[in-house]
Q: What sequence folds into this?
């Protein structure tokens, strides 16, 4: 956003010494602990959904309604408490918030594992424990975004986010397969227990992080005032609203369509085995894209991210055209490339250009407004497919999501936002308001 719209409490940048090459993220001990904790936690989290699904279906006698209740029990409190999580992360030490949230998640998953291992599955306690897990997740996400600049400084944000993205995507690729093997070998209870242990290990790693480096504005007087202040800051950042609206539409028309119709229609056009190949190609695209952005510096990173998000529509358009397996696999790879670039560009832009004291709250507002579309889209896909046909729905969803991806580029604030260049030693909090 432009300098004249910066909050009054934001420090005015002063000329510093000549720019020098920043230290790589792994040169910072705190980031190494953070990355290790994230690797363990994300792998456990990627394994948990498969194990939980089998546990609920086995315990309930195969009732899919129970699984829907359990999944909703986690998702709804996550959305409900996101803003509280963002305000809390900006008000207290983010390291403390992260350790507490991970310990809470470890306790919740440990209790679920205890119920399963003891043979006392029942829907109400499992759903109640997943509510606690969703609340913990709502506090974790905003704090994670805010803590990265404190660990590596502004200059190393892009490569740091690329490393985190690589860890996240590798966990998504490996986690479900490992979980399936573990469930088949020893059952769902030990797999859920492994997720609980991963949260506890992550909490131990996060406890080793250094304290805040400073640079925050005055902490909000209360959580509620922090939420209201976060909304004002979100509105002040002129490029945040167009990008968030784009993410809302993409989540609305793309996520549920791909999750629900993708495997069914792929089986009709290319065979059942093709779906696994498409998902694997998407995972490969995620990893390749993260590796490229670790090294590649782009002047207008946010604009690149918005353009790349249009690639997420490619497999939907290919599926809607009823093309065969090689095209679908290529479309999955392209989608992986685009999704990864978009995520790294968005996180880095927030961390570089939003004041440190409002970063978690702005991230929380954006996440809430983006993620709220997902359950709506998931509920609408089935009726739309029955009314208009699945192939027509995926084709329209692909076209709409591609258009929504590129429309923010019409905004000068989005097009003109520059990827921050290193100044001085590159340490310290994100600058308050660099202009386009």
A:
């Amino acid at each position: 956003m432009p300098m004249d719209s910066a909050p009054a409490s934001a420090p005015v940048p002063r000329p510093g010494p000549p720019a020098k090459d920043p230290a790589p993220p792994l040169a910072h001990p705190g980031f190494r602990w953070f990355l290790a904790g994230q690797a363990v936690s994300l792998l456990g989290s990627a394994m948990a959904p498969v194990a939980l699904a089998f546990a609920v279906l086995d315990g309930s006698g195969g009732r899919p309604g129970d699984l829907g209740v359990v999944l909703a029990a986690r998702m709804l409190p996550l959305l409900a408490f996101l803003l509280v999580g963002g305000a809390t992360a900006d008000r207290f030490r983010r390291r403390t918030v992260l350790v507490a949230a991970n310990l809470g998640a470890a306790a919740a998953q440990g209790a679920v594992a205890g119920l399963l291992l003891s043979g006392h599955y029942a829907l109400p306690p499992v759903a109640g424990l997943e509510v606690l897990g969703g609340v913990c997740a709502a506090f974790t996400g905003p704090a994670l975004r805010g803590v990265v600049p404190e660990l590596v400084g502004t200059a190393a944000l892009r490569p740091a986010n690329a490393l985190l993205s690589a860890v996240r995507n590798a966990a998504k690729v490996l986690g479900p397969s490992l979980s399936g093997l573990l469930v088949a070998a020893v059952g769902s209870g030990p797999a859920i227990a492994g997720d609980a242990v991963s949260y506890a290990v992550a909490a131990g790693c996060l406890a080793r992080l250094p304290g805040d480096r400073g640079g925050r504005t005055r902490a909000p007087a209360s959580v509620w005032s922090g939420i209201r202040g976060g909304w004002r800051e979100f509105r002040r950042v002129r490029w945040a609203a167009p990008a968030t609206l784009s993410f809302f539409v993409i989540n609305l028309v793309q996520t549920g369509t791909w999750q629900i119709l993708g495997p069914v229609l792929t089986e009709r056009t290319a065979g059942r085995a093709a779906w696994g190949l498409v998902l694997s190609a998407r995972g490969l695209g995620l990893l390749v894209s993260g590796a490229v952005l670790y090294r590649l510096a782009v002047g207008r990173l946010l604009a690149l991210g918005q353009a790349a998000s249009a690639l997420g529509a490619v497999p939907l358009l290919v599926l809607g055209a009823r093309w065969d397996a090689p095209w679908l696999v290529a479309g999955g790879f392209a989608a992986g490339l685009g999704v990864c670039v978009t995520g790294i560009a968005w996180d880095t832009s927030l961390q570089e250009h939003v004041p440190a004291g409002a970063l978690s709250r702005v991230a929380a507002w954006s996440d809430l407004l983006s993620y709220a579309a997902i359950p709506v889209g998931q509920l609408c896909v089935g009726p739309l497919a029955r009314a208009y046909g699945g192939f027509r729905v995926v084709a329209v969803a692909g076209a709409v999501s591609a258009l929504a991806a590129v429309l923010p580029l019409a905004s000068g604030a989005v097009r003109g936002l520059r990827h921050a260049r290193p100044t001085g030693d590159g340490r310290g909090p994100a600058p308050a308001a660099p202009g386009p």
